[in-house]
Design goal:
heterotrimer; A alpha+beta (about 130); B alpha/beta (about 130); C alpha/beta (about 290); A: about 130 residues; alpha+beta; Heat Shock Protein 90; five-stranded antiparallel beta sheet; globular; B: Transcription Regulator spoIIAA; about 45% helix
Chain lengths: ~130, ~130, ~290
Amino acid sequence: MAVVSSESIPVASEPDVVVVRRRVRETASTIGLSLVDQTKVVTAASELARNTLIYGGGGTMQLESLNGPRLGIRLTFQDKGPGIADIELALRDGFTTGSGLGLGLGGTKRLVNEFQIESRVGEGTKVVITRWK
Amino acid sequence: MEKIPILQMGDLLLVTIQVDMHDRLAMTLQDDLTQRISQTSARGVLIDISTLEIVDSFIGRMLGNIAAISRVLGAETVVVGMQPAVAITLVELGMSLPGVRTALNVDAGMELLRQSVNGRKGNHYGSRF
Amino acid sequence: MSKSLQNRSAALAEILSTNESSLVEDWLKQMSSGVRRFDLIKESELRSQCALFLKLLRQGCESGGTDLEAAAWGPMREMMAEITRSRAQQGFTPSETASFVFSFKKPLFDRVRARYQGDAEALAAELWSATELVDSIGLYTVEAFLKSREQVIRRQQEEMLELSTPVVKLWEGILALPIIGTLDSARTQVVMETLLESIVATNSKVAIIDITGVPTVDTVVAQHLLKTVTAARLMGADCIISGVRPQIAQTIVHLGINLLDVTTKSTLSDAFALALQRTGLSMGQSQPRGA
């Protein structure tokens, strides 16, 4: 897999989440993702950035543009926060009717093609998502 | 700090969300709207999101909150102009925003509000003729 | 990379460079008519493919051992992918293209044998690494063929999906979307996009989704339908599901599928009548009536 470009974006405050959305949108648009797919990956990025900020105590997002086998965009969210004790629970849909409990990672997972999560209690969490063209 | 302007038209309040909001701005909007509804005894709130390209779970929850809070305060809320890509994404995320009434555009939204403000029955979410 | 490996690929490179033209000739002779396919490819084009193959093979060996995955072999991989693509278009089967590569072994091995005459161990080692290399290139063409076929099939599927979800404007503000065939998740995405865009374009308040042409409705299909209905509702349009046959109604009840408050009708005409009511009612509203 070829990484065409890579940049690191801090996720340390609320305005950073807006920057995340903007940069992901720009990259997604550059590689030619459809409007719906752009919206999905930007929304996923927004969800994960917020998690990094609120539950992870802040962290970074690595934004990579891929080429090979297809064009794609890969985002890696990393924090050194408390970690997730029960990943399976977190992956279950936390949303019912917008009362919004929990991390709701299940929904975010549906917005992307690939979703990987690693987390250790007391050490931090890393989430990698990929959206292909 | 930047604020999202709230316009008053008779007993309706109009909000147009055009900027990519960070969470604090969204919370401020919620607070401001709640205050204005109460101050003006508004009967309807119209939120225009036709230029909003991203609605994530936080904004979705905010819209739901505004609808619920305004109902308690005696006002109906209608959200108008959601973009197709946004609707598809929200549904995929698992959010259906029940309790939030919707319309295609500002005109349709005003129509909906006028109907409910005039006390016509049957326009509540869930009941159909 | 170990020194012996380095030496081997360097030796191979040397063999290739000193014998370039004779290798091409022998290779061409080696190809059986089944592989050669005089009917599909001209002599001149085949020669240039062979020459390019040799050149890239030599360059790859010179710079980076015999692992086809390595970055140094990028140009070779690209060329083989390109050759596979053009041959597929010309009508070659994937075996014929792979055999085109494999038939290079004999002329190559003849030269390797000549070079290592008398040194059985070195000869065996060199032949082994040469065969591994050529095999991996031949296999690569098969992979490339499969990949390009997948792309073609995917594209055709997308086009078919788009063609099979026509949206019809029944009346001012009323759309109809007949769904024919199964509703899987890929189809649902296309249906949603098509429907929602039509709703915006025609300013329609009601969309009738007709499922007469959907053979079975189970929990999965019902979920997809619900997704579509929910997405339309978020935008401000109501959906009515029509074409609900008695068997489907029974299945829905048996499976305990909860259609929430989605209105369903058995026929399109019933759905249309209801849709007129719903939009007609709003029209009546804007005409203030006299006392």
